[in-house]
Write a structure and sequence with these properties.
heterotetramer; A: alpha/beta; Hypothetical Protein Tm841, Chain: A,domain 3; 6-stranded mixed beta sheet; B: mainly alpha; Serine Threonine Protein Phosphatase 5, Tetratricopeptide repeat; 8 helices; about 0% strand; binds adenosine-5'-diphosphate; binds magnesium ion
């Protein structure tokens, strides 16, 4: 394992120290492991709190700031944070208008946020939870823990964050978050496995010509193993898979996120995006907005995910709203 | 043998030692069908539990129930992931099911009820059925073997030994199962052929109970045996 | 070689097609391989043109936009662009106020931009060239092609770009670019080699516990091979190396860039930045501004570079000026 | 033998063929002490040169000088990197040094002057001295051997053969050198022990000249031999 770390045990605290040093616009509570905005919103507003295992940076800490999250709770690598963190975050950012937890659908995250919601309620904080479950690689959700939450998280946090910033009430912000999630589908392909620092070696072995199709963001293997093929073919398959589930049709318009999993150069992500745009054009689907880069990563995993969110005027307008976070900015 | 504070602490310490010894194996199992952190999750959790027991700020526990609820709370506060709430809630439920200080301590049968409360808590939180390839698949046969032993007249050490055997068989029996809960479920049929990490740690937990009760039986403590 | 590409021969054109599809705010001339702003500045201004081999994304195309570059010329992977590209770029963006070429100091880049400058002069375009050579790993510049241009390029392009945006004359913009370069020093460490698509395999072989110290951004080996050590120790060495050359002393303040080489997760870059901040604090050097992320990459190479630019009021004020490019935004 | 249009074209085609054959080796050498693109750079460049010669838009060249200056211009426009301008300027200089259409064609001695002009262009642009581990280290001995052969009365094919030998020796002789120009110089002492890719491609270029002139000598063209 080759990593720029001090020890496997201290990756989270060391990384948080770096975030604190790099971002005066954020306040990092190292003891509670909570990242908030350094400058509180001037008026009371619904607060957005998210969190999850670390190793997905810039998610979630990189999305804290005006127009998006109020707080993020980073857990250990690929491990849901603990309820105490979310409670501390909720207490730190609640202005009385209530708190929305944005939770990616993983057993651990769901359970821990659930416990936190109970604790917050006991402290008199109103909490709504938006569950993100956009990954269509998880095919049979009756017989699984349900679809995983992946790339759509960025869209939920951005769009619901924009609405919260405008002073919308708690239920409305949560409902919009749910709508964005319902309008989103994702699918990912990995070229290499991720190495969890504490595990010390890659989660699975792939031959020089093999890929994992339908992976999540926690280094787990995908639905199946295939041979590497040209980007055009891989993307065509990914687009077909997403569209098959999404029922997007000619005339629809989408926000498209081509997301790197951490180890893939931007140049390749642009090649992928070019293919995505071409395939969608063939289907008559318009790419109204797009985002290409590393947003929801999986440590050093090479590969990409595609997220398509069906767009309408309102979502686009909120997507375009100003945002000022370390990883997403718009004037 | 009754369940006293010393036994409760000994059990928790034995789990911590087992986790320290076996965390690499747990992580390896979790790498195969999960995300490769189960060993480090429990290690972090039980290290914190030991600190809570032994640290300078540790209050003297008011009884075995308190030891176990505090263990559960510490796991919830320190582990995260799926196993944090699951084991955390389980230990809190076990602790809550034990008699309060002043009441008569739990005997083998009473402790069986507490273990059952632990399993109920796991199932309530995680909604897993037996056969879903989770903690439940080790805990269920462990509890059944424990009860059968008690029904046959066994004392705590023998019942715990039976439970450990049951948990270990249950963990092994997860190998051919396709996971339907937790991260491993994402793998679909590819989860078949691997032993579930959580069921495996549950087996460690019951093996630790067998060790702690056997040791208590061998070296009579203040409460005798 | 595992890459998300169609063919090794078409990576550049496929990536440019993706850039064109992803960024309506850019105009991509696929035939000439020139990226410009889609919307021209409203008033005549000095135009900044940069370029270099591809594989360093987001450099340079990701820095085209208001407040930074007017045009970028991407060459083939790790290969300087050709003079025709720079000439086409200069013609496209010159408003009569002249053009500044920002050139990283590599033999190929220098030669090709030199030829381009001659051609531009023949067409009546006034050109100044700012050479970026910040890499202190190249120790003895008398006996080499001189210091390489690496991370400082981002600072030169940002700061000179801000000045150009305000309407400063050609010589002033060029002089400021040179001043930023002179105030900057960089050093890089690689954990893995980069794989050039056309070569098909890594440029060098590193054992599981080895690193290359003092690498450039073209996949070439560094000055020496060492054993991997904790981030704290690696960073301490890098900081010492840069400070030794830079003669920064207590009381000085810097803009610090911790830059990922392409294959390193953001979490590790934050760990590195935390260590950089701690070491600089020990030296009494203030980090006035910082940037952590993938800005000047080397395909899929894992590793990081550190760039320290001595800051003064004027540089900071221009660093803080608005910028709106795909990879760097500030309101 | 004089240098006519056909010979100039044959030379360029022979280089293109050699580059197509050897590009992987050139890239491999460049991977060791450079950035692993020298083979693909020249391959892209000479493919474009062939298109410029043969493509539908190719104008009929007005003479061997035009063939070579056009080759140089195409390399400059298509290659990039260090080798693009270096070889581009070299071919442009060689072409410019050849007699204009209407003038008496260059003989072996005249062509030697053109090759010398090529080397001057390389050195003017790149500022490399012999021993810096560059193109110059193959071109210099190639030119020396060529001139020596011509001084000894050799015709063009024999002189070219001598030049090819000189270039190949020169390329081999770069192995022990420490690079002082180009990317390889960044490696410092670590550049020692590797053959320079650019010197190696220069050897291909002179070997192609030997082949083309030998073929022209064997199969008399319009200009005879
Ligand atoms: N719904 C559930 N009910 C019971 N146990 C579960 C459930 N989901 C997961 N588990 C157990 O949790 C284990 C994984 O724990 P751990 O790796 O620590 O957490 P995570 O999956 O969040 O990384 C699994 O092996 C499984 O036994
Ligand atoms: N200053 C120079 N003068 C002559 N030849 C040079 C000079 N610099 C580099 N070269 C030659 O260029 C070769 C590398 O060419 P190439 O790989 O195509 O370009 P780049 O180095 O830009 O990647 C080197 O092997 C060397 O022979
Ligand atoms: Mg986990
Ligand atoms: Mg796990
Ligand atoms: Mg090159
Ligand atoms: Mg090269």
């Amino acid at each position: 394992m080759k990593k720029l770390i001090n020890t496997a045990e201290t990756v989270l605290e060391d990384a948080l120290a770096g975030v604190a040093a790099a971002h005066p616009e954020l306040a990092v509570d190292l003891a509670n492991r909570v990242i908030t905005r350094a400058v509180r919103p001037s008026a009371p507003k619904v607060a957005l709190v998210s969190g999850g295992g670390s190793g997905h940076e810039p998610l979630h800490g990189g999305f804290v700031g005006p127009g998006m999250l109020d707080a993020a709770c980073p857990g250990e690598v690929f491990t849901s944070p603990v309820p105490d963190q979310m409670l501390a975050a909720a207490k730190a950012v609640d202005s009385g208008a209530g708190v929305v937890f944005v939770v990616k659908n993983y057993t651990g995250d769901v359970m821990n946020f659930e416990l936190a919601a109970e604790l917050a309620a006991e402290e008199g904080i109103e909490v709504r939870t938006v569950l993100v479950d956009d990954d269509v690689a998880v095919e049979d959700s009756t017989w699984t823990a349900g679809r995983r939450g992946t790339g759509a998280t960025v869209l939920v946090e951005k769009i619901a964050g924009a609405l919260a910033e405008r002073g919308a009430p708690l239920d409305e912000v949560a409902a919009l978050g749910e709508r964005v999630n319902a309008a989103s589908r994702s699918f990912a392909i990995a070229l290499t496995a991720a190495t969890v620092p504490a595990a010390g070696r890659p989660g699975f072995d792939l031959a020089e010509d093999e890929i994992e199709v339908g992976v999540g963001i926690h280094g787990e293997p995908g639905r199946r193993r295939e041979k590497l093929r040209p980007a055009r073919e891989l993307v065509a398959e990914v687009v077909e898979t997403v569209l098959a589930d999404h029922r997007l049709t000619a005339g629809d318009s989408v926000i498209a996120l081509v997301n790197g999993l951490g180890g893939t150069p931007l140049m390749e992500l642009y090649i992928v995006f070019g293919e995505v745009a071409a395939r969608l054009a063939e289907h008559g689907v318009t790419v109204a907005r797009s985002l290409v880069g590393n947003y929801v990563t999986s440590l050093d995993m090479a590969g990409f995910s595609l997220t398509l969110t069906r767009a309408d005027e309102r979502l686009l307008e909120l997507w375009d709203a100003p945002v000022d976070t370390p990883a997403l900015k718009r004037a | 043998m009754d369940v006293d504070t010393r036994l409760a602490e000994a059990w928790v310490r034995a789990i911590a030692a087992a986790v320290e010894r076996e965390h690499e194996r747990l992580t390896e199992l979790d790498s195969a069908i999960g995300d490769g952190d189960h060993g480090s999750n429990l290690r972090r959790g039980f290290a914190a539990v030991l600190t809570a027991l032994d640290g300078p700020d540790a209050p003297a526990p008011a009884g075995p129930g308190t030891v176990l609820t505090r263990t559960g709370s510490t796991l919830i506060s320190k582990v995260g992931g799926a196993s944090g709430p699951i084991y955390g809630k389980a230990f809190r439920a076990i602790g809550a099911a034990l008699p309060q200080p002043g009441e008569a301590p739990a005997d083998a049968a009473g402790f069986g009820e507490a273990l059952a409360a632990g399993l109920r808590a796991v199932r309530e939180l995680g909604k897993a059925e037996p056969g879903d390839k989770t903690v439940v698949d080790a805990w269920t046969p462990a509890l059944a073997a424990y009860r059968e032993a008690v029904a046959g007249g066994a004392g705590l050490p023998e019942a715990a030994e039976a439970a450990a055997g049951g948990a270990e068989r249950g963990a092994l029996d997860t190998v051919p199962l396709q996971a339907r809960k937790g991260r491993a479920s994402y793998l679909g049929p590819r989860s078949v052929g691997h032993q579930d990490p959580g069921a495996t740690s549950t087996a460690l937990l019951f093996r630790a109970l067998a060790e702690a009760t056997a040791a208590a039986a061998g070296t009579p403590g203040p409460s005798g045996s």
